[in-house]
C-alpha cells in the first residue's frame, strides 16, 4: 500500500475548520458530515435570528435560509449583533447574509426577503429540513407551526422579552406537541407586549438564539433534543433557569390531531386579530374633537402651560418628557378615583373655576386614547375638557422637535 494513502472521514479543510467540534464526544465526524448536508431555515433576522444563524454558519450547516421583510434600524443594533451601523436602512436578510459569508464562505446562504404568509410559506419551508422560529408575533408563530406540521418539519422555537427568554422544540417525535396543541386560541392582541414596547436586553436573546442553534446541532447529529416536549425558561435578571415538561400532543389539535380541521394554511392575521409583524398598530377610540394634533398642542403650550398627563411607565418618562407633564401611568389611572387624579394634577374643582383643558400623551398615541376614555368614565370631571395628543411623542419628534429622543 502506498505510504501516502489514507482514509478520510472529512476533507482537509473540514478537519481544520471544524476540528474543535468534531472532537466533541457524540458529535464527531458523523455530526459534521450531517451538518454539511443539512438545510436549516431561520425565520426572522433579528435578535434571535442573528445568534442562531451565526452559530449554525460557524458550525458548517450546509445551507441556511433566512426569511425577513424588514430593514436594519439603529435601535436593532444593541441585540441584533450580526448587523453593523453601515447596514442601517438596508435589508436585514442581505445584511445577515454578508456577515455569515464573511464568517464561513464554504456554506450556502439563501435569502427570502418577504413577509412570510399563507401564500408563500409552504413553498419556502418545504426546501429545508429544520425550521427555527425567531419571529416576534403571534400570527407568524401560528403560521410557522401549522406549516411545519403539514410538511412534517421539526420546529425550534425561541422568544425573549425584557429579562426573560423561552425555548422549546415543537412537532418532534411521535408524542411531541405542536404550538397549537398548547395554545389552540390566540391571545387577545391588547394583552400582547413585544420588545418595541416592553424592551429586551441583548444578551437574553443571545442566550436563547444560541440554544436554538444548539438544539439544531443535536438534531443533525442524531442526538436527542433536550427541549422536545419541554419548555426552557431563562430569567436573565436572577440568572435562574427552569424546565417545564409540556403536555403531550393533543389528539384534538386542529392541525396535528387525529382528525385535523386545518389541512392548509389559513388567514393568520384574521385568526390572531393582529398583523404578522412587531410594529405597533394604531387604534382609533376617540372622536376627532377629543384629539389634538402635535402641532395644535405645540401652539397651545406657547400661550400657557397646559395640564398634561403622560401615561408611559416611569422608565420611559425618564428617557424624555415635556416639562409640564405629570406621569400617571395607564394602569394607575384605571385604579385611581377622580379625587386622587385631581390631587395628582394639583387641581381644585370649584364651581367658580373656569373649565380647564387637560391633555394626555403617550409614546405613540394608543394608550393616551385609552386614558381619555378611562378619565371620562370615572365622572366628576365636568370642569375638565379632556383630549389626547394624537400620535404621542413619536409624532412630536417627527413633526415638532426633531431633537426629542425617539426609542
Map the helices and strands.
Blueprint: H1 12-22, H2 28-37, E1 39-43, H3 49-59, E2 63-67, H4 92-103, E3 108-112, H5 121-125, E4 130-133, H6 138-151, E5 155-161, E6 164-170, H7 179-182, H8 195-198, H9 202-220, E7 230-235, E8 240-245, H10 268-272, E9 291-292, H11 294-303, E10 307-310, H12 314-319, E11 325-327, H13 330-335, H14 338-344, E12 356-361, H15 367-378, E13 384-389, H16 392-399
Parallel strand pairs: 1-2, 1-4, 2-3, 4-5, 9-13, 10-11, 10-12, 12-13
Antiparallel strand pairs: 5-6, 6-7, 7-8
Helix pairs in contact: 1-2, 3-4, 3-9
Summarize the structure in words.
The structure is a single chain. The chain has 407 residues and is an alpha/beta fold. It folds into two domains: 38-272, Rossmann fold (3-Layer(aba) Sandwich), CATH 3.40.50; 288-399, Rhodanese-like domain (Oxidized Rhodanese, domain 1, 3-Layer(aba) Sandwich), CATH 3.40.250.10. It is 35% helix and 16% strand. The protein has 16 helices and 13 strands. It has helices at 12-22, 28-37, 49-59, 92-103, 121-125, 138-151, 179-182, 195-198, 202-220, 268-272, 294-303, 314-319, 330-335, 338-344, 367-378, 392-399; strands at residues 39-43, 63-67, 108-112, 130-133, 155-161, 164-170, 230-235, 240-245, 291-292, 307-310, 325-327, 356-361, 384-389. The protein has an eight-stranded mixed beta sheet with strand order 3-2-1-4-5-6-7-8, sandwiched between helices. A five-stranded parallel beta sheet has the order 9-13-12-10-11. Helix 1 (12-22) packs across helix 2 (28-37), helix 3 runs parallel beside helix 4 (92-103) and helix 3 (49-59) runs parallel beside helix 9 (202-220). It starts with 11 loop residues before the first helix and ends in an 8-residue tail after the last helix. The model has no long low-confidence stretch (mean pLDDT 92). Keywords: ATP-binding, Cytoplasm, Metal-binding, Molybdenum cofactor biosynthesis, Multifunctional enzyme, Nucleotide-binding, Transferase, tRNA processing, Zinc. It comes from Caenorhabditis auriculariae. Its cofactor is Zn(2+).
Amino acid at each position: 500500500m502506498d505510504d501516502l494513502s489514507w482514509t478520510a472521514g472529512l476533507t482537509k479543510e473540514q478537519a481544520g475548520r471544524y476540528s474543535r467540534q468534531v472532537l466533541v464526544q457524540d458529535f464527531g465526524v458523523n455530526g459534521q458530515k450531517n451538518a454539511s448536508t443539512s438545510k436549516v431555515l431561520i425565520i426572522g433576522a433579528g435578535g434571535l435570528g442573528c445568534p442562531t444563524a451565526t452559530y449554525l454558519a460557524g458550525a458548517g450547516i450546509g445551507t441556511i435560509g433566512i426569511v425577513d421583510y424588514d430593514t436594519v434600524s439603529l435601535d436593532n443594533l444593541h441585540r441584533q449583533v450580526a448587523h453593523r451601523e453601515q447596514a442601517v436602512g438596508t435589508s436585514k436578510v442581505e445584511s445577515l447574509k454578508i456577515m455569515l459569508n464573511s464568517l464561513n464562505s464554504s456554506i450556502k446562504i439563501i435569502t427570502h426577503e418577504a413577509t412570510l404568509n399563507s401564500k408563500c410559506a409552504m413553498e419556502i419551508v418545504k426546501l429545508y429540513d429544520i425550521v427555527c422560529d425567531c419571529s416576534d408575533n403571534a400570527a407568524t408563530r401560528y403560521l410557522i407551526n401549522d406549516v411545519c406540521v403539514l410538511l412534517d418539519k421539526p420546529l425550534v422555537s425561541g422568544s425573549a422579552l425584557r429579562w426573560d427568554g423561552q425555548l422549546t422544540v415543537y412537532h418532534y417525535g411521535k408524542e411531541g406537541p405542536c404550538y397549537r396543541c398548547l395554545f389552540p386560541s390566540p391571545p387577545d392582541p391588547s394583552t400582547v407586549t413585544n420588545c418595541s414596547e416592553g424592551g429586551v436586553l441583548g444578551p437574553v436573546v443571545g442566550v436563547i438564539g444560541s440554544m436554538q442553534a444548539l438544539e439544531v446541532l443535536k438534531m443533525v447529529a442524531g442526538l436527542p433534543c433536550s427541549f422536545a416536549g419541554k419548555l426552557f425558561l431563562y430569567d436573565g435578571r436572577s440568572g435562574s433557569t427552569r424546565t417545564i415538561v409540556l403536555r403531550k400532543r393533543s389528539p384534538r389539535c386542529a392541525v396535528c390531531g387525529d382528525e385535523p380541521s386545518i389541512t392548509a394554511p389559513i388567514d393568520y392575521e384574521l385568526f390572531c386579530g393582529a398583523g404578522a409583524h412587531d410594529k405597533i398598530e394604531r387604534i382609533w377610540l376617540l372622536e376627532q374633537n377629543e384629539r389634538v394634533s402635535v402641532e395644535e398642542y405645540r401652539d397651545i403650550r406657547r400661550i400657557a402651560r397646559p395640564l398634561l398627563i403622560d401615561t408611559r411607565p416611569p422608565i420611559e418618562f425618564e428617557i424624555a418628557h415635556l416639562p409640564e407633564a405629570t406621569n400617571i401611568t395607564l394602569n394607575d389611572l384605571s385604579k385611581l378615583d377622580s379625587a386622587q387624579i385631581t390631587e395628582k394634577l394639583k387641581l381644585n374643582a370649584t364651581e367658580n373655576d373656569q373649565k380647564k383643558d387637560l391633555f394626555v400623551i403617550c409614546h405613540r398615541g394608543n394608550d393616551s386614547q385609552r386614558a381619555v376614555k378611562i378619565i371620562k368614565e370615572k365622572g366628576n370631571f365636568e370642569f375638565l375638557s379632556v383630549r389626547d395628543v394624537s400620535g404621542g411623542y413619536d409624532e412630536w419628534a417627527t413633526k415638532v422637535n426633531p431633537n426629542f429622543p425617539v426609542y
